Amino acid sequence: METSRTDTSRTTSADRSAGRLRGRLAAPRSAWRQDFTASLVVFLVALPLCVGVAVASGVPAELGLVTGIVGGLVTGMLPGSSLQVSGPAAGLTVLVYEAVQAYGLPVLGVIVLIAGLLQLLMGGLRLGRWFRAISVSVVEGMLAGIGLVLIAGQLYSLADIEAPSSGLGKIAGLPGMFADVVASSQARTALCLGAGTIAVLVLWKKLPKPVQVVPAQLAAVGLATLASALLGLPVAKVEVKGLVESLQPPGLGEFGELANIGLIGTVLAFTLIASAESLFSAAAVDRLHDGPRTQYDKELMAQGAGNAVCGLLGALPMTAVIVRSAANVQAGARTKASRVLHGVWLLLFAALLPAALGVIPVAALAGILVHAGFKLIPARELVGLWREHRGEALILVATAVSIVAVSMFEGVLIGLALAIVKTAWEASHVRLEVVDKGAGPIQAYLTGNATFLRLPKILDTLESLPQDRPVELHLTGLHHLDHACRTALENWAERHSGADTEPVKVTSPS
Predict the structure, then answer these.
(1) Does a structural domain hold residue 243?
(2) Given pLDDT bands bounded at 50, 70 and 90, which one contains residue 30?
């Protein structure tokens, strides 16, 4: 009996060990199946977006695919965030278009390369986490401004009409654009096709779940392409040049443009906006899953490496994209293998089926980007901010309006400056309490943070005190007293201490 128990115990232990081994072997197989399926979903979502962003940016459609491929095969393999997916983003469309118009397509590679190297440097210096300190109002204002300019520009593409170059010009020219649509049957046809694309995107989530297995973006472009082909619609199609022919690596001559101050500003804008968008996307993706959290400095370096490669190839800049990342998580991705595989599928498509891009109507891609532009505008968040934090709401609006009225870089700088001023104003809260008992010295108590921002109000109150009465100024309640405020208080004390009045007694802060 004793031997039997021992054998049974050994058998049970062996079974447990075998079960654990089978579980460890099955888990990777299960993860690979999920990652494989997720990679196909992300590929189908990314394909129309890569092409649409490239066309809207004024560059060959193939360059959008190149950036998507690099985002999968290069950035996708590096540590940082395991589930978010990188590629060309609608948020950089306006900036890329302006850069290409101002400096030419070959110089775009220089801009993207230097921006990528700066991201690598910032990640190496562990500055990635500091991007989380940027005011959310500035970031949302930046996205809202991008969305407004993107919508205004793509409305022209919906009707196959060339858009003005400036943000204000796009908005001001909309009435004339609609007049042209009324007068042109071809423009009306393109506009109807683009509007149908937007309708599919909006209504797709209301269809039965089995239908929604097909990504909305792919369905919208596919249906628009099918309608255009079957009905023989006279609308503009995507121009196809070929993958290799589209690549324009920067030469040594293009690097000479770095002496241009305006180009330096563009590089800084690319770096700031791409980094902020990627790291804010990472924070959003982390909330969608229970897996490993993002390592922000490593993720910034991964984005930098991807952008450096894109720059060397003369392709579009990349960021992490929340649409593709959310699709990746929702499709059940478990590891970074899904985003690497999505890059493989993009590469195979670009290598084997590049001519398929030539049948896609430009109006359909414009519809996708108009829809994406509306999603960049945080309308609900703005209403909530206005109710609870009006200062933050004003910063959001001011940033968005500045981007539309001036440019991307200046608009973001204006937003950051306003956020800093607001923070400084709130941090300089100070209270001055005057106690006058009718006899004896007047007592003045300063509490809080005394800075030059509040100095006029402090001096107005102190200078209104009776000149013939002694004063005691208590500063022990101050948490901070800056040099300008201290000097001003000392000068006031000297002026108030006349020949017939006792000197002002000042109790300094500890």
Answers:
(1) yes
(2) low
Question: Based on the domain organization, do 367 and 469 belong to the same domain?
Answer: no
Tokens read off for 193 = 């096709």
Nearest-5° angle of CA 64, CA 131, CA 273? 30
> For residue 441, how many other CB atoms are within 10 A of its CB?
16
Domain that holds residue 451: 429-507
Is 334 part of a structural domain of the chain?
yes
Q: Is 448 helix (H, G, I), strand (E, B) or coil?
A: strand
At 481, is the secondary structure helix, strand, or coil? strand
Looking at the fold, whether 299 and 442 belong to one and the same domain comes out as no
Alpha-carbon distances, residue 432 vs 264, 353, 361, 365 (angstroms): 47, 74, 67, 60
Contact between 165 and 171 (Cβ < 8 Å): no
Angle formed by the axes of helices 261-286 and 296-313, to 10°? 130
For residue 279, give Cα distances in angstroms to 83, 122, 337. Answer: 13, 13, 20
Between CA 60 and CA 105 the distance in angstroms is 10
SS3 477: strand
Does residue 23 lie within any of the structural domains? no
pTM given for the model: 0.73
Residue 483 sits in a domain of what CATH number?
3.30.750.24
Q: What are the tens digits of pLDDT across the range 203-255?
A: 998 888 888 888 888 889 899 999 999 999 888 888 877 777 788 889 888 88
**CA–CA gap between residue 82 and residue 282 (Å, rounded):** 10
Instruction: Determine, yes or no, domain membership for 8.
Output: no
Give residue for tokens 């995507």: 238
3-state secondary structure 192-223: HHHHHHHHHHHHHHHCCCCHHHCCHHHHHHHH
